[in-house]
Design brief:
- The radius of gyration is 18 Å and the shape is globular.
- Strands 1, 2, 3, 4, 5, 6, 7 and 8 form an 8-stranded mixed sheet that branches.
- The longest helix is centred in the C-terminal third of the chain and has 20 residues.
- A hairpin with a 2-residue loop joins strand 5 and strand 6.
- The chain is about 35% helix and about 25% strand.
- The protein has about 220 residues and is of the alpha/beta class.
- The protein has a single domain, classed as Thymidylate Synthase, Chain A, CATH 3.30.572.10.
Length: about 220
């Protein structure tokens, strides 16, 4: 049986109680799960999603701008995006640019057509990461090694399911914003397929390294 978000919370609480920490090069403690796989049945594991920020981030993704200064968030550019971008604000991880643009071969459109023509198939995958990320991640001062590897889609029993495969995911901030984007794309595909019998199904979350930073340990407690 697949784990769910409530069970993932308990795993992190158990790890915190047992002081099962990984310490990075800065001395910061993290609680991590390597090879996590669970049903993303809740919008957040710890914390509360900010609809205002999520809406702003999705608008930025839709714009396909690669500059974080274009995120239309009234409270300013979040620190995590500033850290990822170079001094000009340029970054790699505008997810809309990665799946909608011609630069990356119109991946959304390719998946949409695949799902329409071969709904029981296994090719409907949008690839977010790329081999060139090894030189792109720090190009001109960036610090942005794309966190999502790929998302695959499957039509089964009149439902469209998504399997999100991530390289790295911060449980507190990353999960809830990334899940919101995944739900947005899933719903958009269902609408664009335009089959009245098709509904949005489950989102399955697979992460190579799922973690909580020390500054958020109180939330875990």
């Amino acid at each position: 049986m697949m784990l769910n978000c409530a069970q993932m919370r308990e795993i992190f609480r158990d790890k915190l109680a047992a002081e099962e920490f990984t310490i990075d090069k800065t001395g910061c403690k993290t609680i991590e799960i390597i090879g996590a796989s669970f049903l993303a049945d809740e919008e957040a594991i710890f914390g509360t999603p900010s609809k205002e920020y999520i809406d702003a981030e999705i608008k930025w993704y839709e714009s396909m701008s690669t500059n974080v200064n274009d995120i239309p968030y009234p409270n300013g550019v979040p620190g995590a995006w500033k850290h990822a971008a170079n001094e000009h604000g340029e970054t790699n991880s505008n997810y809309g640019y990665l799946i909608f643009s011609d630069t990356y071969h119109y991946q959304y459109e390719n998946v949409l057509e695949e799902l329409k023509s071969n709904p029981d198939g296994r090719r409907a995958t949008m690839v977010y990461n790329r081999p060139s990320i090894w030189v792109d991640y720090n190009d001109q001062g960036k610090n942005d090694f794309i966190c999502t590897n790929a998302v695959s889609y499957y039509v089964r029993d009149n439902q469209l399911h998504a399997v999100v495969q991530m390289r790295s995911n911060d449980v507190v901030f990353g999960y809830k914003n990334d899940r919101a984007w995944s739900q947005y794309v899933l719903d958009k595909l269902v609408a664009d397929i335009a089959d009245e019998n098709l509904t949005a199904g489950q989102i399955i979350w697979q992460v190579q390294n799922l973690h909580v930073y020390e500054r958020h340990f109180e939330m875990v407690k």
